[in-house]
Amino acid sequence: KQWYQRRVAITAGTDSQVYTVAPVLFPRLIQLFQTETFGPGTRARVLSIFATFTTLISHMDSVDNAANENLLFPVLPGLVDTTIVLIGTPASDKIDYKLQTECVNFLSKLVQTFPKQMGDKVSSALPVLWQLLTKNAEDHITTVVNNPDHVEDDVSNLKVMNVMFYNLHTSAIYIHLQSATYIHLQS
Question: Which residues contact 56 (CB under 8 A, 6 or more apart)?
Answer without folding.
Answer: 11, 14, 18
